[in-house]
């Protein structure tokens, strides 16, 4: 799964992980990324794979659904929100 909205980020397990790491004076690094076409459709459930274009993955050979301008804007906003 991903960390893509406040509900996901605020889960108790993530809070506990952060507290335990910080207790040892260490820091966590989170990398934000979108799998796009490079994800197995089997692992994606009922949702279609989304990518900026409908070009198939050379790894999984699955053609994603091309994202609309609205979906691209929402994804961009979600990443900006997650990074804030």
Automatic annotation (TrEMBL):
Task: Name the domain of life.
Answer: Bacteria
Q: Output the InterPro entries linked to this UniProt entry.
A: Aldolase_TIM, OxRdtase_FMN_N
Q: Which GO terms describe its molecular function?
A: FMN binding; oxidoreductase activity
Q: Which Pfam families does UniProt cross-reference here?
A: Oxidored_FMN
- Occurrences of domain NADH:flavin oxidoreductase/NADH oxidase N-terminal (ranges): 3-84
Query: SUPFAM superfamilies, per this entry?
Result: FMN-linked oxidoreductases (SSF51395)
Its protein name is: NADH:flavin oxidoreductase/NADH oxidase N-terminal domain-containing protein
